[in-house]
């Protein structure tokens, strides 16, 4: 079991009013990811409303702010009891067996133009046996051919551009892997989160993007950027691509400072709390088993 303590500070200068915000920085609540403690301090006199999305546990905060400084400080402790599965037992599902709400994750989306990747995906992976190991081969292919370069892409960079540029940040790795999976009719979705264990040389702790792929009716974790082990991922939101899971959507005239994020692992062998580490097992942070 993994227990992680983290903090997030977001700062804004609201330049005109009113300005609306929709945040997605609270950790998602699933049957295997629990929030043990949390607190939120908002430095501006606003009315904030919490919202949740029952289908995958994502939580949101909506507020309207006024001219001046707006600061949000979140503190939380999350416990994750991953489901471990033998990779050899996980299979890809035919489209005819996919649940209706999963079909959106095999279609092209704004940043994952999977319809443009069909020939490439079939050339690289079409002859492989479908299943977990083929998905891992896609993950490794993305990791090998793409260099992690901070600041090398922007909010409009898509999987096609990452394919051509051979470089990007975590969201670009995720978009490329998702596009390749969907081109083979494998449901794949974008996950936003915070990661424990990334190399400090990559810079300050930041929000992180990774991939969840459906195999044998359950969503499994993959990090194509390779900056951390999946066991150290805290899920915030899930969607078709980055457009669905921004940590902040801002509607108004605002300037922002870079997020300040810190994360630590709580290790206690007596309580069965381990340090996030590599495992050969397939990992899922939900027990939800989807059926047609």
Describe the protein.
- This is Transglutaminase-like domain-containing protein.
- It comes from marine sediment metagenome.
- InterPro entries: Bact_transglu_N_2, Papain-like_cys_pep_sf, Transglutaminase-like.
- There is one protein chain.
- This protein is mostly beta strands and about 290 residues long.
- The protein contains four helices and 17 strands.
- The strands form five sheets. Strands 1, 3, 6, 15 and 16 form a five-stranded antiparallel sheet that branches. It has a four-stranded antiparallel sheet with strand order 4-5-2-14, with no helix packed on it. A four-stranded antiparallel sheet has the order 12-11-10-13.
- Strand 4 and strand 5 form a beta hairpin.
- Helix 3 packs across helix 4 (about 170-185).
- The longest helix has 14 residues, at about 130-145.
- The model has no long low-confidence stretch (mean pLDDT about 95).
Task: Write a compact overview of the structure shown.
It comes from marine sediment metagenome. This is Transglutaminase-like domain-containing protein. With 292 residues, this protein is mainly β.
């Amino acid at each position: 079991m993994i227990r992680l303590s983290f903090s997030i500070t977001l700062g804004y200068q609201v330049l005109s009013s009113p300005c609306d915000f929709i945040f997605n920085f609270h950790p998602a609540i699933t049957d295997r990811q629990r929030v043990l403690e949390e607190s939120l301090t908002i430095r501006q006199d606003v009315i904030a409303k919490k919202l949740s999305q029952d289908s995958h546990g994502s939580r949101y905060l909506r507020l309207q702010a006024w001219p001046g400084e707006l600061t949000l400080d979140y503190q939380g402790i999350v416990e994750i009891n991953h489901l471990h599965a033998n990779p050899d037992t996980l299979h890809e599902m035919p489209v005819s067996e996919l649940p209706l709400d999963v079909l959106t994750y095999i279609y092209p989306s704004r940043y994952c133009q999977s319809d443009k990747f069909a020939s490439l995906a079939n050339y690289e992976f079409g002859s492989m046996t479908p299943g977990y190991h083929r998905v891992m081969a896609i993950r490794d292919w993305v990791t090998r051919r793409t260099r992690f370069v901070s600041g090398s892409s922007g909010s409009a960079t898509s999987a096609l551009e990452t394919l051509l540029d051979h470089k990007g940040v975590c969201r670009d790795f995720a978009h490329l892997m998702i596009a390749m999976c969907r081109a083979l009719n494998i449901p794949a979705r974008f996950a936003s989160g915070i990661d424990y264990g990334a190399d400090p040389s990559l810079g300050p702790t930041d929000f992180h993007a990774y991939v969840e792929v459906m195999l044998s009716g359950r969503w499994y974790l993959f990090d194509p950027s390779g900056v951390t082990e999946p066991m150290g991922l805290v899920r915030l939101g899930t969607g078709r691509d980055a457009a669905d899971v921004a940590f902040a959507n801002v509607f108004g005239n605002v300037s922002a400072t870079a997020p300040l994020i810190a994360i630590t692992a709580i290790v206690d062998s007596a309580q069965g709390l381990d340090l996030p580490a590599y495992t050969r097992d397939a990992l899922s942070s939900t027990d939800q088993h989807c059926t047609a």
